[in-house]
Amino acid sequence: xxxxxxxxxxxxxxxxxxxxxxVAHIFSPNLxxxxxxxxxxDLRGGAHLVYRADVSQISPSEIQxxxxxxxxxxxxxxxxxxxxEPLVQVEQKxxxxxxxxxxQRLIVELPGVTDVNQAIKMLGETPFxxxxxxxxNMEEGVNAADAFLPSRLTGRYLEKATLEFSPTTxxxxxxxxxxxxGAEIFAKLTKENVGKQLAIFLDGAPISAPVVxxxxxxxxxxxxxxxxxxxxxxxxxxxxSGALPVPIELISQQSVGPTLGEKVLMKGIxxxxxxxxxxxxxxxxxxxxxxLISVFALAIYIxxxxxxxxxxxxxxxxxxxxGFILSIGMAVDANILIFERMKEERxxxxxxxxxxxxxFARAWLSIRDSNVSSLxxxxxxxxxxxxxxxxxxLTLGIGVLVSMFSAIIISRTFLLAIGAKEESxxxxxxxxxxxxxxxxxx
Length: 442
Fold this sequence. Notes:
Multidrug efflux transporter AcrB transmembrane fold, Alpha-Beta Plaits, Gyrase A, domain 2, 4-stranded antiparallel beta sheet, alpha+beta, 3 domains
Protein backbone atom coordinates (compact mmCIF):
# COMPACT_ATOMS: atom_id res chain seq x y z
CA UNK A 1 0.00 0.00 0.00
CA UNK A 2 2.83 2.49 -0.63
CA UNK A 3 0.66 4.69 -2.86
CA UNK A 4 -2.08 5.09 -0.27
CA UNK A 5 0.44 5.69 2.50
CA UNK A 6 2.08 8.45 0.45
CA UNK A 7 -1.32 10.07 -0.20
CA UNK A 8 -2.18 9.74 3.49
CA UNK A 9 1.02 11.58 4.45
CA UNK A 10 0.18 14.36 1.97
CA UNK A 11 -3.31 14.67 3.47
CA UNK A 12 -1.85 14.93 6.97
CA UNK A 13 0.66 17.61 5.90
CA UNK A 14 -2.03 19.55 4.04
CA UNK A 15 -4.31 19.28 7.06
CA UNK A 16 -1.57 20.66 9.32
CA UNK A 17 -0.98 23.62 6.97
CA UNK A 18 -4.70 24.40 6.70
CA UNK A 19 -5.05 24.03 10.46
CA UNK A 20 -2.33 26.65 10.99
CA UNK A 21 -4.21 28.93 8.61
CA UNK A 22 -7.30 28.51 10.81
CA VAL A 23 -5.49 29.70 13.96
CA ALA A 24 -2.93 32.06 12.38
CA HIS A 25 -4.87 35.14 13.52
CA ILE A 26 -4.30 34.04 17.14
CA PHE A 27 -0.60 33.13 17.08
CA SER A 28 0.69 35.22 14.15
CA PRO A 29 -1.70 38.18 13.68
CA ASN A 30 0.76 40.10 11.51
CA LEU A 31 0.94 37.52 8.72
CA UNK A 32 -0.80 38.50 5.48
CA UNK A 33 -3.08 35.44 5.57
CA UNK A 34 -3.95 35.64 9.27
CA UNK A 35 -7.50 36.88 8.78
CA UNK A 36 -9.88 36.42 11.72
CA UNK A 37 -13.25 34.71 11.50
CA UNK A 38 -16.13 37.04 10.63
CA UNK A 39 -18.60 37.02 13.50
CA UNK A 40 -22.25 37.94 13.24
CA UNK A 41 -24.13 40.48 15.29
CA ASP A 42 -25.33 37.98 17.89
CA LEU A 43 -21.75 36.91 18.66
CA ARG A 44 -20.02 40.25 18.30
CA GLY A 45 -22.63 42.62 19.73
CA GLY A 46 -24.33 45.57 18.09
CA ALA A 47 -27.69 46.92 16.98
CA HIS A 48 -30.31 45.15 14.86
CA LEU A 49 -32.95 47.38 13.25
CA VAL A 50 -35.87 46.48 11.00
CA TYR A 51 -37.57 49.18 8.91
CA ARG A 52 -40.80 49.05 6.94
CA ALA A 53 -40.67 50.88 3.60
CA ASP A 54 -43.75 52.67 2.31
CA VAL A 55 -44.00 51.76 -1.38
CA SER A 56 -47.68 52.63 -1.75
CA GLN A 57 -46.89 55.55 -4.06
CA ILE A 58 -44.62 53.52 -6.34
CA SER A 59 -45.73 51.38 -9.25
CA PRO A 60 -45.09 47.63 -8.81
CA SER A 61 -42.54 47.60 -11.63
CA GLU A 62 -40.38 50.16 -9.78
CA ILE A 63 -40.47 48.65 -6.29
CA GLN A 64 -37.38 46.48 -6.80
CA UNK A 65 -35.30 49.43 -7.99
CA UNK A 66 -36.60 51.62 -5.17
CA UNK A 67 -35.69 49.05 -2.52
CA UNK A 68 -32.24 48.55 -4.04
CA UNK A 69 -31.78 52.31 -3.99
CA UNK A 70 -32.95 52.47 -0.38
CA UNK A 71 -30.45 49.81 0.61
CA UNK A 72 -27.60 51.64 -1.13
CA UNK A 73 -28.50 54.97 0.45
CA UNK A 74 -28.74 53.56 3.99
CA UNK A 75 -25.50 51.64 3.52
CA UNK A 76 -23.73 54.77 2.32
CA UNK A 77 -25.02 56.76 5.27
CA UNK A 78 -23.98 54.09 7.78
CA UNK A 79 -20.49 54.00 6.27
CA UNK A 80 -20.11 57.72 6.93
CA UNK A 81 -20.21 56.97 10.65
CA UNK A 82 -17.37 54.44 10.44
CA UNK A 83 -19.35 51.36 11.47
CA UNK A 84 -17.23 48.30 10.66
CA GLU A 85 -18.79 45.67 8.39
CA PRO A 86 -22.44 46.81 8.52
CA LEU A 87 -25.14 44.63 7.00
CA VAL A 88 -27.92 46.37 5.10
CA GLN A 89 -30.25 44.13 3.14
CA VAL A 90 -33.76 43.95 1.78
CA GLU A 91 -35.77 41.17 3.39
CA GLN A 92 -37.17 38.84 0.75
CA LYS A 93 -40.41 37.09 1.68
CA UNK A 94 -40.60 33.57 0.30
CA UNK A 95 -40.25 33.19 -3.44
CA UNK A 96 -42.16 36.37 -4.26
CA UNK A 97 -40.40 39.10 -6.14
CA UNK A 98 -40.07 42.50 -4.52
CA UNK A 99 -42.70 43.90 -6.89
CA UNK A 100 -45.18 41.26 -5.69
CA UNK A 101 -44.72 41.92 -1.97
CA UNK A 102 -47.14 44.32 -0.35
CA UNK A 103 -44.81 44.98 2.58
CA GLN A 104 -41.15 45.78 2.05
CA ARG A 105 -38.65 45.59 4.90
CA LEU A 106 -35.07 46.68 5.29
CA ILE A 107 -32.77 44.98 7.82
CA VAL A 108 -29.85 46.99 9.23
CA GLU A 109 -27.22 45.35 11.42
CA LEU A 110 -24.55 47.56 12.97
CA PRO A 111 -21.78 45.54 14.71
CA GLY A 112 -20.16 47.32 17.62
CA VAL A 113 -23.02 49.84 18.01
CA THR A 114 -24.63 48.97 21.35
CA ASP A 115 -26.56 52.23 21.74
CA VAL A 116 -29.79 51.58 19.82
CA ASN A 117 -30.90 55.19 20.11
CA GLN A 118 -27.67 56.31 18.49
CA ALA A 119 -28.19 53.83 15.66
CA ILE A 120 -31.75 55.03 15.12
CA LYS A 121 -30.56 58.62 15.06
CA MET A 122 -27.93 57.77 12.45
CA LEU A 123 -30.57 56.50 10.09
CA GLY A 124 -33.54 58.62 11.13
CA GLU A 125 -31.83 61.85 10.12
CA THR A 126 -31.77 60.76 6.51
CA PRO A 127 -34.47 62.90 4.83
CA PHE A 128 -37.14 61.80 2.41
CA UNK A 129 -37.21 64.40 -0.34
CA UNK A 130 -40.07 64.54 -2.83
CA UNK A 131 -41.70 66.93 -5.29
CA UNK A 132 -45.47 67.27 -5.40
CA UNK A 133 -47.63 68.83 -8.08
CA UNK A 134 -50.55 71.15 -7.49
CA UNK A 135 -53.87 69.38 -7.27
CA UNK A 136 -56.50 70.31 -9.87
CA ASN A 137 -58.94 73.04 -8.77
CA MET A 138 -56.98 73.73 -5.60
CA GLU A 139 -58.93 76.08 -3.36
CA GLU A 140 -57.40 78.99 -1.54
CA GLY A 141 -56.64 78.54 2.13
CA VAL A 142 -56.22 74.77 1.82
CA ASN A 143 -53.29 73.29 3.75
CA ALA A 144 -50.37 72.84 1.36
CA ALA A 145 -49.68 69.35 2.68
CA ASP A 146 -53.20 68.31 1.60
CA ALA A 147 -53.29 70.22 -1.70
CA PHE A 148 -50.39 68.63 -3.57
CA LEU A 149 -50.23 65.24 -5.28
CA PRO A 150 -47.13 62.98 -5.16
CA SER A 151 -45.06 62.68 -8.30
CA ARG A 152 -42.41 60.26 -9.50
CA LEU A 153 -39.63 62.71 -8.61
CA THR A 154 -38.06 61.85 -5.23
CA GLY A 155 -34.66 61.91 -3.57
CA ARG A 156 -33.94 58.62 -5.28
CA TYR A 157 -32.87 60.61 -8.36
CA LEU A 158 -30.83 63.19 -6.45
CA GLU A 159 -27.20 63.39 -7.57
CA LYS A 160 -25.85 66.13 -5.32
CA ALA A 161 -26.78 69.19 -3.28
CA THR A 162 -24.72 72.37 -2.75
CA LEU A 163 -25.06 75.39 -0.50
CA GLU A 164 -25.26 78.78 -2.22
CA PHE A 165 -26.33 82.32 -1.29
CA SER A 166 -28.74 84.49 -3.21
CA PRO A 167 -26.92 87.38 -4.94
CA THR A 168 -29.81 89.72 -4.13
CA THR A 169 -31.11 88.74 -0.69
CA UNK A 170 -27.94 86.97 0.52
CA UNK A 171 -30.15 84.27 1.99
CA UNK A 172 -28.91 80.67 1.87
CA UNK A 173 -30.22 78.53 -0.98
CA UNK A 174 -29.75 74.86 -1.70
CA UNK A 175 -29.08 73.87 -5.28
CA UNK A 176 -29.87 70.29 -6.21
CA UNK A 177 -28.81 68.36 -9.28
CA UNK A 178 -30.72 65.32 -10.50
CA UNK A 179 -29.25 62.41 -12.44
CA UNK A 180 -30.17 61.80 -16.08
CA UNK A 181 -33.36 59.90 -15.27
CA GLY A 182 -34.37 62.45 -12.67
CA ALA A 183 -33.67 65.31 -15.08
CA GLU A 184 -36.09 63.78 -17.61
CA ILE A 185 -38.81 63.43 -14.96
CA PHE A 186 -38.18 66.98 -13.71
CA ALA A 187 -38.32 68.40 -17.24
CA LYS A 188 -41.65 66.68 -17.85
CA LEU A 189 -43.08 67.90 -14.54
CA THR A 190 -42.09 71.50 -15.14
CA LYS A 191 -43.38 71.40 -18.73
CA GLU A 192 -46.79 70.06 -17.66
CA ASN A 193 -47.15 72.42 -14.69
CA VAL A 194 -46.13 75.83 -16.04
CA GLY A 195 -47.90 78.50 -13.97
CA LYS A 196 -48.62 76.03 -11.18
CA GLN A 197 -46.91 75.32 -7.92
CA LEU A 198 -44.37 72.49 -7.66
CA ALA A 199 -43.92 71.95 -3.96
CA ILE A 200 -40.79 70.56 -2.32
CA PHE A 201 -41.50 68.31 0.66
CA LEU A 202 -38.92 67.07 3.15
CA ASP A 203 -39.96 64.24 5.49
CA GLY A 204 -43.61 64.92 4.64
CA ALA A 205 -43.48 68.63 5.45
CA PRO A 206 -43.53 71.37 2.76
CA ILE A 207 -40.41 73.52 2.79
CA SER A 208 -40.97 75.43 -0.43
CA ALA A 209 -43.76 75.78 -3.01
CA PRO A 210 -42.36 77.73 -5.98
CA VAL A 211 -44.37 78.49 -9.09
CA VAL A 212 -43.06 76.94 -12.30
CA UNK A 213 -42.31 79.74 -14.78
CA UNK A 214 -40.97 77.59 -17.59
CA UNK A 215 -39.73 74.13 -18.46
CA UNK A 216 -36.40 73.24 -16.76
CA UNK A 217 -34.65 70.68 -18.99
CA UNK A 218 -31.25 70.48 -17.27
CA UNK A 219 -32.32 68.82 -14.02
CA UNK A 220 -31.16 71.69 -11.80
CA UNK A 221 -33.39 73.23 -9.13
CA UNK A 222 -33.18 75.32 -6.00
CA UNK A 223 -34.68 74.85 -2.55
CA UNK A 224 -35.38 78.22 -0.97
CA UNK A 225 -36.95 79.11 2.31
CA UNK A 226 -36.28 80.82 5.59
CA UNK A 227 -33.10 78.84 6.29
CA UNK A 228 -30.36 79.95 8.63
CA UNK A 229 -26.84 79.20 7.29
CA UNK A 230 -26.47 76.44 9.87
CA UNK A 231 -29.78 74.82 8.91
CA UNK A 232 -28.98 75.05 5.22
CA UNK A 233 -25.53 73.52 5.72
CA UNK A 234 -26.99 70.64 7.76
CA UNK A 235 -29.66 70.02 5.14
CA UNK A 236 -27.03 69.87 2.38
CA UNK A 237 -25.03 67.33 4.41
CA UNK A 238 -28.12 65.20 4.94
CA UNK A 239 -29.10 65.31 1.28
CA UNK A 240 -25.60 64.44 0.10
CA SER A 241 -25.44 61.53 2.53
CA GLY A 242 -28.45 60.12 0.75
CA ALA A 243 -32.02 61.17 0.32
CA LEU A 244 -34.31 58.19 0.74
CA PRO A 245 -36.15 57.01 -2.37
CA VAL A 246 -39.09 55.90 -0.17
CA PRO A 247 -40.12 56.77 3.39
CA ILE A 248 -39.26 54.25 6.10
CA GLU A 249 -40.66 53.42 9.53
CA LEU A 250 -38.81 51.66 12.35
CA ILE A 251 -40.82 48.58 13.41
CA SER A 252 -38.27 46.55 15.38
CA GLN A 253 -35.11 47.24 17.32
CA GLN A 254 -32.75 45.03 19.28
CA SER A 255 -29.44 45.55 21.01
CA VAL A 256 -26.89 42.79 21.66
CA GLY A 257 -24.12 43.62 24.10
CA PRO A 258 -20.54 42.45 23.38
CA THR A 259 -20.43 40.57 26.70
CA LEU A 260 -23.58 38.63 25.86
CA GLY A 261 -22.27 37.91 22.37
CA GLU A 262 -19.00 36.56 23.79
CA LYS A 263 -20.90 34.27 26.15
CA VAL A 264 -23.02 32.92 23.28
CA LEU A 265 -19.88 32.27 21.23
CA MET A 266 -18.11 30.45 24.06
CA LYS A 267 -21.18 28.33 24.78
CA GLY A 268 -21.40 27.36 21.12
CA ILE A 269 -17.72 26.43 20.97
CA UNK A 270 -17.93 24.49 24.24
CA UNK A 271 -20.98 22.55 23.08
CA UNK A 272 -19.21 21.71 19.82
CA UNK A 273 -16.08 20.46 21.61
CA UNK A 274 -18.06 18.27 24.02
CA UNK A 275 -20.09 16.86 21.18
CA UNK A 276 -17.00 16.02 19.11
CA UNK A 277 -15.31 14.33 22.09
CA UNK A 278 -18.34 12.14 22.84
CA UNK A 279 -18.79 11.19 19.19
CA UNK A 280 -15.08 10.37 18.91
CA UNK A 281 -15.24 8.10 21.96
CA UNK A 282 -18.23 6.28 20.51
CA UNK A 283 -16.48 5.73 17.16
CA UNK A 284 -13.29 4.40 18.76
CA UNK A 285 -15.04 2.12 21.27
CA UNK A 286 -17.54 0.70 18.78
CA UNK A 287 -15.51 0.48 15.57
CA UNK A 288 -11.97 0.27 17.02
CA UNK A 289 -9.29 1.13 14.46
CA UNK A 290 -11.70 2.28 11.70
CA UNK A 291 -13.33 4.49 14.32
CA LEU A 292 -9.96 5.98 15.27
CA ILE A 293 -9.22 6.65 11.60
CA SER A 294 -12.62 8.32 11.19
CA VAL A 295 -11.72 10.62 14.11
CA PHE A 296 -8.60 11.76 12.24
CA ALA A 297 -10.68 12.23 9.09
CA LEU A 298 -13.22 14.19 11.13
CA ALA A 299 -10.48 16.46 12.47
CA ILE A 300 -9.28 17.21 8.94
CA TYR A 301 -12.89 17.78 7.90
CA ILE A 302 -13.33 20.40 10.64
CA UNK A 303 -10.05 22.08 9.65
CA UNK A 304 -11.08 22.31 5.99
CA UNK A 305 -14.55 23.68 6.76
CA UNK A 306 -13.18 26.35 9.10
CA UNK A 307 -10.71 27.42 6.41
CA UNK A 308 -13.55 27.76 3.90
CA UNK A 309 -15.47 29.87 6.42
CA UNK A 310 -12.48 32.20 6.58
CA UNK A 311 -11.83 32.40 2.85
CA UNK A 312 -15.38 33.08 1.59
CA UNK A 313 -15.83 34.67 4.27
CA UNK A 314 -18.87 33.26 6.07
CA UNK A 315 -20.43 35.45 8.77
CA UNK A 316 -20.67 33.10 11.74
CA UNK A 317 -23.76 33.46 13.89
CA UNK A 318 -25.16 31.23 16.63
CA UNK A 319 -27.43 29.66 14.00
CA UNK A 320 -24.46 29.22 11.67
CA UNK A 321 -22.47 27.42 14.35
CA UNK A 322 -25.48 25.15 14.90
CA GLY A 323 -25.51 24.34 11.18
CA PHE A 324 -21.80 23.54 11.28
CA ILE A 325 -22.19 21.23 14.29
CA LEU A 326 -25.09 19.49 12.54
CA SER A 327 -22.90 18.93 9.48
CA ILE A 328 -20.29 17.28 11.73
CA GLY A 329 -22.94 14.81 12.82
CA MET A 330 -23.74 14.09 9.17
CA ALA A 331 -20.04 13.50 8.46
CA VAL A 332 -19.97 10.95 11.26
CA ASP A 333 -23.13 9.35 9.89
CA ALA A 334 -21.39 8.76 6.56
CA ASN A 335 -18.50 6.97 8.31
CA ILE A 336 -20.93 4.79 10.26
CA LEU A 337 -22.62 3.69 7.02
CA ILE A 338 -19.23 2.77 5.56
CA PHE A 339 -18.07 0.85 8.62
CA GLU A 340 -21.30 -1.12 8.91
CA ARG A 341 -20.98 -2.13 5.25
CA MET A 342 -17.39 -3.19 5.93
CA LYS A 343 -18.49 -5.34 8.87
CA GLU A 344 -21.07 -7.02 6.64
CA GLU A 345 -18.39 -7.80 4.06
CA ARG A 346 -16.09 -9.15 6.78
CA UNK A 347 -18.84 -11.39 8.16
CA UNK A 348 -19.38 -12.67 4.62
CA UNK A 349 -15.83 -14.01 4.70
CA UNK A 350 -14.08 -11.44 2.51
CA UNK A 351 -10.50 -10.33 3.02
CA UNK A 352 -9.78 -7.02 4.70
CA UNK A 353 -8.81 -4.93 1.64
CA UNK A 354 -11.73 -6.32 -0.35
CA UNK A 355 -14.09 -5.58 2.54
CA UNK A 356 -12.81 -1.99 2.71
CA UNK A 357 -13.19 -1.39 -1.03
CA UNK A 358 -16.62 -2.96 -1.33
CA UNK A 359 -17.80 -1.41 1.92
CA PHE A 360 -17.13 2.07 0.53
CA ALA A 361 -18.69 1.19 -2.82
CA ARG A 362 -21.88 -0.17 -1.25
CA ALA A 363 -22.23 2.74 1.19
CA TRP A 364 -21.68 5.43 -1.44
CA LEU A 365 -25.21 5.36 -2.88
CA SER A 366 -26.80 5.86 0.55
CA ILE A 367 -24.32 8.62 1.42
CA ARG A 368 -24.91 10.36 -1.90
CA ASP A 369 -28.70 10.31 -1.65
CA SER A 370 -28.84 11.51 1.96
CA ASN A 371 -26.35 14.33 1.35
CA VAL A 372 -28.07 15.47 -1.85
CA SER A 373 -31.38 15.72 0.01
CA SER A 374 -29.63 17.76 2.73
CA LEU A 375 -28.10 20.05 0.12
CA UNK A 376 -31.51 20.62 -1.46
CA UNK A 377 -32.91 21.53 1.95
CA UNK A 378 -30.01 23.89 2.64
CA UNK A 379 -30.47 25.56 -0.76
CA UNK A 380 -34.18 26.15 -0.16
CA UNK A 381 -33.51 27.57 3.31
CA UNK A 382 -30.82 29.88 1.94
CA UNK A 383 -33.05 31.02 -0.92
CA UNK A 384 -36.21 31.64 1.08
CA UNK A 385 -35.02 32.30 4.62
CA UNK A 386 -34.14 35.41 6.58
CA UNK A 387 -30.55 36.41 7.33
CA UNK A 388 -30.32 34.15 10.39
CA UNK A 389 -31.76 31.15 8.53
CA UNK A 390 -29.41 31.83 5.61
CA UNK A 391 -26.43 31.63 7.96
CA UNK A 392 -27.58 28.21 9.17
CA UNK A 393 -28.22 26.99 5.63
CA LEU A 394 -24.85 28.20 4.31
CA THR A 395 -22.75 26.53 7.00
CA LEU A 396 -24.82 23.35 6.73
CA GLY A 397 -24.44 23.24 2.94
CA ILE A 398 -20.68 23.79 3.03
CA GLY A 399 -20.33 21.17 5.76
CA VAL A 400 -22.31 18.58 3.82
CA LEU A 401 -20.22 19.07 0.68
CA VAL A 402 -16.95 18.70 2.56
CA SER A 403 -18.28 15.73 4.55
CA MET A 404 -18.72 13.71 1.35
CA PHE A 405 -15.08 14.38 0.45
CA SER A 406 -13.97 13.53 3.99
CA ALA A 407 -15.84 10.24 4.21
CA ILE A 408 -15.15 8.91 0.71
CA ILE A 409 -11.60 10.18 0.12
CA ILE A 410 -9.86 10.79 3.47
CA SER A 411 -11.28 7.88 5.49
CA ARG A 412 -10.84 5.44 2.58
CA THR A 413 -7.23 6.53 1.98
CA PHE A 414 -6.30 6.10 5.65
CA LEU A 415 -7.95 2.68 5.88
CA LEU A 416 -6.22 1.39 2.76
CA ALA A 417 -2.91 2.83 3.93
CA ILE A 418 -3.10 0.88 7.21
CA GLY A 419 -4.87 -2.21 5.84
CA ALA A 420 -3.29 -5.57 6.70
CA LYS A 421 -2.73 -8.23 4.05
CA GLU A 422 -2.92 -11.24 6.33
CA GLU A 423 -5.60 -12.29 8.75
CA SER A 424 -4.65 -12.48 12.41
CA UNK A 425 -6.20 -12.14 15.83
CA UNK A 426 -4.97 -8.54 15.96
CA UNK A 427 -6.55 -7.80 12.60
CA UNK A 428 -9.81 -9.35 13.69
CA UNK A 429 -9.77 -7.29 16.89
CA UNK A 430 -9.00 -4.03 15.11
CA UNK A 431 -11.27 -4.47 12.09
CA UNK A 432 -13.90 -6.99 13.21
CA UNK A 433 -14.22 -10.75 12.93
CA UNK A 434 -13.60 -12.60 9.69
CA UNK A 435 -15.79 -15.68 9.15
CA UNK A 436 -13.71 -18.46 7.61
CA UNK A 437 -15.83 -21.36 6.40
CA UNK A 438 -14.14 -24.79 6.53
CA UNK A 439 -15.25 -28.15 5.15
CA UNK A 440 -14.34 -31.18 7.27
CA UNK A 441 -14.98 -34.91 7.06
CA UNK A 442 -18.03 -36.02 9.03
